[in-house]
Amino acid sequence: MACGRVSDRVVRCPAGNRDMSFHPAGQSTAASLTRRGWLRVGGAGTLSAAWSVRSVDPAAGRIVARPGAQFGQAKSCILIFLSGGHPQHETFDPKPDAAAEMRGPFQPIDTNVPGIQYSELLPRTARVADRLCTLRSLATDDNTHGSSAYYYYTGTNKIRGGVPLGKTDRAADRLVDWPSIASIVGKLRPSEASPFSAVIVPELILNNPGYLFAGQDGGFMGRGWDPQVFHCDPSRPRYQIDTLGLGEELSAGRLARRRELLSHLSGHFGAGGKSRQVATFARQVQQAFEVLMSGPARAAFDLSQEQDRLRDHYGRNHFGQSLLLARRLVETGVRFVQVNWPREPGDLSVGNPVWDTHFDNAGRCRDTLCPPFDLGFSTLIADLDARGLLDETLVVVLGDFGRTPKINQNGGRDHWGPVMSGLLAGAGIATGQVVGASDRNGAYPTDRRIQPEELAATLFHLLGINPHTHIEVAGRPFKISTGEVVAEVLGSGPVTSERAVAGGRISGLPDFGRGPLSNGDFERGQILQGRFGSAEFWVARPSWTAARPAAFAVASKVVLDQEEPSVASVAQLGFGLAGDAAAGVINPGQTAMLAQEIYNQRPGRYTFQVHIAGTADSESAAQWHRHFRTRIVIFRFTDLTRDVGHIEELATTEIDMRFAAAPVAWQVSRLLKDQQGGGGELHKGIGVAVIVEKTGKAIDLKAAGCRFAVLQVTRARVRFLPRDFEFSYYDRNRDGRLDRDEAPSFLAADFAELDHDGDGFLEPTDLDHERAF
């Protein structure tokens, strides 16, 4: 059985041909090995040159780290990487005094430390600020994803031989790439308790075309020092890492016999004097067997052992559950865990992925990015603290770079290397403070500029590694860091005992399992807003109220009947809503609109389906067909105001209204693209609406004898299928169909409707219409 450092390939378990779901960084395809081939991995010819790596002082032979303030206080490190590059303004460095086109729409809020403010999008993080050190002057001066992120991954912007990497998005090249900080930590401070020293979850960071960004692996140290990469989604039902089980075909007894056979082979290899390569191989094999036979290594990945309430507070989403997994890994002794912000389905090969908010920065941060970070990160800090782990675990939050101070014409922020904000917490960190500062606009550092090599030196120092250590590769030494420790961040706990009441609004746990549309059954029928404030509410224009009972309007049954919010409800459009005889004049072009912004928009096919019933007196029904036009639409906003008066209809279905008591289903569908797909519909946000419009001449309702005509929207859904949807990715059982546990969240709400034959499974043919792009 092979662990990540034993082979330079992804291998299959010899028993049962079960795919190993972890592999060395940069590898994504599996190569099968027979039992004989698997045993041959021990051959001297296959041993990597990485096993010649050793720590040395060029003058003295081996360097001895010099202890200092907080040196070695961290037993483990959790590095959280917000891939794409998070905006400083909407996170840890709000700029309320900047011009509107720079400060953005969100307000700063007080944290629980006087004088420190975060964005209002991070109310939970604001409540743990006393346990955080906020960095506001991180800088690479590089606006390119690949090379700026490489700088943070490795702590240098150089490649082998001290040659500058340059500003580039090139793919990983382990012949010349500098090893990642995770790899160096795994080499110089291997875990004493776990088979894993450095781990990356839940995925590697890829460029949009799908290739691996440089700097995430062992680089020129060799594949033997790549972090273990576990591609996983711990939020999914029945989540498990297949690699960590023995499989049905391989019992513990059989595994023990194989271990004994391999022990004999190892003895044969070492008969003529045990070389360093053979000794290293033996150690790697030992680690592989420990993974399979020891309980703790496997148990760390079993999140079902955690209480449901705690899992809820981490957030039932890919990122939140990955943070919980990271905590469990450091509990078992893993030295370095890197948690990368995961992509969502349809988030590959697009112009606005992950935190790379080139358009609709406000909407993306408000709805999709900040809520899971805020919930998961604040819970991680509190959980580590409650378990006594925070004092021995270093926690770091970084990203590719910051975002531009000025908001672009599409409401986005672009790449900005001159300044970024980040966070430190835990072992050896002086918390409750801000280190560094940016200018009034959040554009450039004005105090204590911090570069990645300094940050890397600080991480090494706290983990008990002298930053000036040299490592020899193929006979040539290199220094693991050229930076100096950032002394200002070192300490033990809060720098002040003063506390303040943190601001911001916290209203229950976010629903991360929701679909693109909220309140589709109108269970919260009383909530009809007058304008878009978030993607949580229906907007009624004009909205009927008892104080302002418009003749032609939109209302909810709850509002009209004064029922409790828990009562099942509908949304209603038309005239005579309150049950009284209608009165008033409706002019040509006048509309009644029920609309909602789509949550977490990204390229793919959107299908808007509504169930509409109706009621009308006979004269009103006749007048309706002569004077009114009803349609359902998918639209995009044409400016950044997100006003229903500023929209462009992208797809429309006209409704032949029959005013039947039984609801009738209507739908409209459209493939939406971003700029990389040849379109720009998603730039300023999208939404769906039911619209009733007055056509022809004005009508005096009372004079025409019209009493009431009301459309009743009883149910609304938006189905979404990502542009890059791959059926096989979700088919964990490899049986050619998806059960309810396998179905992704964007299909779960409509599972029964999509299951055309009612057998409890989704087959590819069930999605043919959705995929007809």
Could you give a quick summary of the protein structure above?
This protein is an alpha+beta fold.
Defining traits:
773 residues; alpha+beta; Jelly Rolls; 4 domains; six-stranded mixed beta sheet; 37 strands; 20% helix; disordered N terminus
Could you characterize the architecture of this molecule?
The protein has 773 residues and is an alpha+beta fold. It folds into 4 domains: 106 residues, no CATH class; 359 residues, Alkaline Phosphatase, subunit A, CATH 3.40.720; 196 residues, Sandwich (Jelly Rolls); 49 residues, Recoverin, domain 1 (Orthogonal Bundle). It is built from 17 helices and 37 strands. The strands form 11 sheets. It has a 9-stranded mixed sheet with strand order 2-12-11-13-5-14-17-8-19, sandwiched between helices. It has a 6-stranded mixed sheet with strand order 25-26-30-35-32-33. A 5-stranded antiparallel sheet has the order 27-28-37-31-34. The radius of gyration is 29 Å and the shape is elongated. The two termini are 44 Å apart.
